[in-house]
Amino acid sequence: MRGFVAAEKRVRAVLRSSAVILLIAIQTAAGAQDKHAGTGQTQREAVVNESLYFSPYNTYSDGRGPMLSNNVHQGSSYAMWINPGAYLKATFTGTAATLDIEVTGDATEQPAKVRWSVDDAPWTTGLLAFGIHAVTLASASAKGRHSLEFIYAASDANVSRWREPLMALKVHGIELDADGALERPTGSVTPFRKNVIFFGDSITEGAWVTGNSNRRVSGQYVDWVSYSDATLAWPRAVAAALRAEFGVCAFGGTGWVTSPHPYVPPLPDSWSLYFEGHSRLQGGKLDPPPDYVIVNMGTNDPDHTRSEVIESWLRQARASVGPRASILLIVPFAGRNGDEIGKALQSVNDPHSYKVDLGMQWTYGIGNYGHPSMRSMDGLHPSAAATAEYAAAVAAAIARTVDH
Fold first, then answer.
1. Residue 142's pLDDT is what?
2. What class is the 22-186 domain?
């Protein structure tokens, strides 16, 4: 019971801190160059600096060397995020910091939503259009040591996030004062020792937590970015309760056997890849080895998805995460495919694989798309308030279920 209460408190603290404070326009690279022209007052740190800590499992990098301690490959010129919920953390000295970042894809896509906090201040929220940007994270700050957290909050799921050219964020580096420096993340941004990887669909990536998804124009969900926010999604709060760093690997519309448009393969064919043709496995293993693998899949699948599909994936995943990692399959919040998940787990008979079923009382108001309820603005995706409740319930269920 004590673990349950502690987990719930950590979940609620994380979600309370995620309130939107300010929406701003982001400076273009050209504007940033004008700002610093002729001063010679900045220095640039590359993404291979191990004091820039990137989220595990969902940070792709272009280097071919070994994985560094900051989850970037040695020799990389950029770190790239496809999935909302990806983040970086750092501690820097000096008075200013600017992130060099690029939004890839095509010029017609909805701007990407990003959020950041310096020195634990309220979140700043910004929109990044297609192209290259210099995001001013801090300026004219007091000299000294500063903490930074930067999060990819939402992307346009109407465009490709699997096949190139794909919508993604590329971080090329960070600019600091001439007398500034990066230090190992400390204080509130100190990395936890444990790691968790999340797989899921639109609910897991934080889609529609702040608005209704029903409005479409020419078949496009035109409010996807506006009403979605990974900082309010359940994985972030659950990871905090587990005291773990985390990678969210979620694509709206996917399932155990279902593929959305634009195309992303079902989980058994996509889990081991960052995006098409680019494996997230190192020598057949996830790196770093996860302590937890948490899956919330099945909402988009037909009822009675074949348990053999789930069973086969469980065997693949176990081979890639080692014998001791806890693999947790959540029965989707709307209650679908729970029996099939149970059958698959029974078949593999793995002592460290578990079923997490919140129960029928949690299914009300989120299983009838197009019919808003107290828990959902569209009848399917939990609202921000409901997501906080689901996150607390999931964290408590894990605390009760997993043998630590």
1. 85
2. mainly beta
Predicted confidence (pLDDT) at residue 404 exceeds the cutoff of 70: no
Q: Where are the domains of the chain?
A: 22-186, 194-401
Range with the poorest average pLDDT among 24-33, 47-56, 79-88, 387-396: 24-33
- Return the CATH number of 194-401, one of 3.40.50.1110, 1.10.287.600, 3.10.180.10, 3.40.50.150: 3.40.50.1110
Q: What is the pTM of this model?
A: 0.92
Averaged pLDDT score across all residues of the chain: 91
In which band, very low, low, confident or very high, does the pLDDT at 233 lie, cut at 50, 70 and 90? very high
State the SS3 of the chain.
CHHHHHHHHHHHHHHHCCCCCEEEECCEHHHHHHHHCCCCCEEEECCCCCCCEECCCCEEECCCCCECCCCCECCCCCEEECCCCCEEEEEEECCCEEEEEEEECCCCCCCEEEEEEECCCCCEEEEECCEEEEEEEECCCCCCEEEEEEEEEECCCCCCCCCCCCCEEEEEEEEEECCCEEECCCHHHCCCCEEEEEEECCCCCCCCCCCCCCCEECCEECCCCCCCCHHHCHHHHHHHHHCEEEEEEECCCCCCCCCCCCCCCCHHHHCCEEECCEECEECCEECCCCCEEEEECCCCCCCCCCHHHHHHHHHHHHHHHCCCCEEEEECCCCCCCHHHHHHHHHHHCCCCEEEECCCHHHCCCCCCCCCCCCCECCCCCECHHHHHHHHHHHHHHHHHHCCC
